[in-house]
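User: I'm writing a tutorial on reading structure tokens. Could you give me a worked example: one chain, its sequence, then its tokens, then a sentence or two explaining what the tokens reveal?
Assistant: Sure. Here is the example chain.
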Amino acid sequence: MPVEHIPLGALLTSKRNVRRTDRKADLDALAASIAAHGLLQNLTVVRAPEERFEVVAGARRHAALKLLAKAGTIARDFAVPCFIIDEGDAAEASLAENVQRVAMDVMDEVDAFAALAAGGMPVDDIARRFGAGVRHVEQRLALARLSPKIKAAYRKGDVSLDAARAFCISDDTVQQETVFRQMAKPIVHAAGVRAHLTRGRVPASDRLATLVGIDAYEAAGGRIVRDLFEPDLAYFDDGELLRRLAFEMADVWRGACLAEGWGWVEINLGHARFEGMAGERLEPTRRPLDPDERDRLGRLDDEIAVLEDALADAEDEDERFAELDRLVTARDEIADGSLSWDRERMAHAGVVISVDHGGRPSFVRGVIKRTDLKAIAKLGARRDTDGGDVSGEVATTAAATPDSEYGPRPGRGLTEALTRARTVALRAALVAHPQAALALLVHVLASRSIGAGVTLGVDIVARTHLHDDAAAFVAAREDMQRGWRDDGPRLDALFASTSEDLLKALAVLTAETIDLSHAGVDAGGGDRQALADALASALDLDMAAYWTPQLEFWMQCPKAYILKALADAPSMAALAARRRGVADARRWRLASRTACDARAERCARAHRCRRRHR
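And here are its predicted structure tokens:
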């Protein structure tokens, strides 16, 4: 078939071309290739009126030529080599050209680019001559540097293209081949390859990497390994250097904390762990803000609110997030500036420094080691005796209260058993007092709304706690559910209910959320105990109506605890001196009732005392 050269201006786009879509895809790249290498494949045309010709095969090449002419790279009457065919063969010729074609294999393109680079052609020139991006060429050249064994495995189908790209994270062909031998064939998962090759390196998303930062790490001589095929992936090559830089930063924070007056500072750059620490914390006092501080705090709150609204739908990369962080930090500084720590107690407490998941330093102040509890308790006792300042109190649990205040205490297991029994009694008593349930509900919701946000021991979030409940509670719950569907009452039915029925249901449902049991060893045990005491007093709770300790219970109690219970009951005082008499089962049962009554009286007395001092 003879080739004729036809002026570019005489060529028309034909509707007979079978390629209907994506005609403009990568047109710039094709134009660049034609400009660099010439038109390597002729167009196929049919004759049209007025000495014009329609392009039936080669529409993209035709469009690229027009693009070059428009840019002035070639003349508008550029002579285009064309095959001229009969009109009846146009559709078949177009179909044959587009169907009978195979895209160039990636590894063949890799070898071709590598040959050009080996011949001295710069990456920029390769990209320009083939209309490709510089990153695309760099990726192909990275594949060219793969171990020959891996490239051969790719051609055999033993390694997928994604996996081959993952091997490029390492320039060490020996390491590549070692990982290749270790992995089962065929290798298709890039993540598995990458995990093997980056073992020992620290991802840039790691908390320490975020804390130190790429700039500081590179300034210290560290090397960042980047994945050409995954722009978001980078690795810190020297983990030891990274940790050293992080600890150097932490040492600066340590010095600042010690200068504040703390007795010790512990650094844990992973999760904040508190081994050997007591459950108690040293708590600061907060002075009222002065007018200037209140004004600045109000302005910052307004600015933060406006910026948060503006950033509601913003991308993570939005630079305004940095401004938001600055405003929040400024606000925290004002709030923290109103805190005051007791200098004497600080000498017996410390700070635990850690790094959170976002790479930000975290400071937990006021941590107390178990070995320092006695020193702080003695300090508090001395101040109580001297009538001195008691600011900066220690947040204690019931277990940490000295025995001398309330007498001997049971161990953890017995405390759990006692508080669990009391929880069951409180739940049963509350269902009979809807007004108290309403008060408790308002208290919890108000705390969440305008207070600290948490009331330990009561979950008003539709989470119920299962207990071996008393018969009164079970009966009240069954009465409430009578007539309800399995999935709860209909809303319209509740709207039609009387206030009395709603209050009864409210009492049961509120009681279900209560779990005031604790072991007396964690920081929340004291709060749960205080709430239980308040409820018991408000409900006039008679524990003897719900629970009677059996012989097995008393057998587990410390002797001092039993004798203290006996001493609280005048009618049983004589038994305190009779050690063998306590072992008698009849006296155990009598002592149990006495101890229960005495405990209830102490709770009521403590609650009345708190109410007088509010």
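What the tokens reveal: The mean pLDDT is 76. The chain is about 50% helix and 10% strand.
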